[in-house]
Amino acid sequence: MYVYSSKVVWTEGRRGKLTCGNGFKASFSPPPEFQGEPGPLTPEDAFVASVNMSFTLSFLKFAEQEKLDLRAFECNCNGIMDRVTPQMAFKRLVLHPRAVVGSDDDIPKAERCMDLAEKFSSVRNSVRPKVVLEYKMEIDKKKAPDNKAKDSEE
Amino acid sequence: MYVYSSKVVWTEGRRGKLTCGNGFKASFSPPPEFQGEPGPLTPEDAFVASVNMSFTLSFLKFAEQEKLDLRAFECNCNGIMDRVTPQMAFKRLVLHPRAVVGSDDDIPKAERCMDLAEKFSSVRNSVRPKVVLEYKMEIDKKKAPDNKAKDSEE
Questions:
Q1: Residue A151 CB-density burial (10 A; 0-12 exposed, 13-18 middle, 19+ buried)
Q2: Closest Cα partner for A49 from A75, A69, A23, A29?
Q3: Which of B90, B103, B98 has its CA nearest to residue B133?
């Protein structure tokens, strides 16, 4: 069992300061459409980001276990909020990961890591909205990093 | 309907950079118990913080609507993660808000704002774990801000 904590303190208007258990600190406000301003962290962004980061870190863990030759990885996540039951809530989250791998042989490994990450991400398993995974794979056209170093010496 | 987005980019090991739709940026890692380090944002902290911030901003919205004489507000949130189904997931979130109000008459108003905030928080309505609300109310012993200014001139 693990416990994760945060503390928020109201500063003024609809603004506050957040301190997370791991030491991270930030100012926050609502998004501009709910009387906030551009720039600070918002609850909606933090929610979508928590799913995105958890999926990504799960993927990196499985990529290590599978000895995947991973060259680059990024992931966009869109959260769609709408009226539900009749309160507002997230209805759907779409993860768009993009992995760049070393060779053709890495593609099925990377697909397996995507599926495992989606299944075992602890935050993904803690949210109500449907989560959709739409991934892209690419093969790195350049040589492996070891060869690249030699090339540059020539 | 509203869409909230984030982008994460893998940097090295189990680390990455997060950019949120509202412009907020941060480095992230897993928590120390999962091969991360103290300091950065983590998915687990972001998840708990998203519920905490959403509840707090909902409370502040209802406090404005109810013309609550609110002097201070802070909220701790603890998320308990454990094995569920059999993956890891958050099982329970406990919100511990503390509101300081101007007079006895504000206590029932503040209680009403707490209950409304818990019911209408969009992020709270998007999470699976049970959410428990354990609030504390206090009355500000000092005079109202207008009187405080006069006092300091004496």
A1: exposed
A2: A75
A3: B98
Q: Do B43 and A122 touch (CB under 8 A)?
A: yes
Check B60 against A14: CB less than 8 A apart.
yes
List beta partners, residue B68: none
Side chain identity at residue A120, one-letter code: F
B94-125 confidence digits (pLDDT tens): 999 999 999 999 999 999 999 999 999 999 99
Which residue spans within chain A are E strands per DSSP?
2-12, 15-20, 25-28, 70-83, 88-101, 130-133, 136-139
| Mutation site, B6, B7, B95, B131, interface A, largest A CB count within 10 A | B6
Identify the pLDDT of residue A150.
41
Which residue of chain A is at minimal alpha-carbon distance from B57?
A14
- For the entire predicted model, the pTM comes to 0.92
Cβ of B6 within 8 Å of Cβ of A41? The answer is no
Q: How far apart are CA B78 and CA B132, in angstroms?
A: 10
Look at B49-58, B82-91, B100-109 and tell me which has the smallest mean pLDDT: B82-91
Helices (H), A28-143: 43-65, 106-120
Closest CA to B73 of B64, B83, B84, B85: B64
Exposure class string for A25-51: b at 16+ Cβ within 10 A, else e: ebebbbbeebebeeebbbbbbbbbbbb
Take residue A142 and report the two structure tokens written for it.
């350049």
- What is the Cα–Cα distance from B81 to A2, expressed in whole angstroms? 5
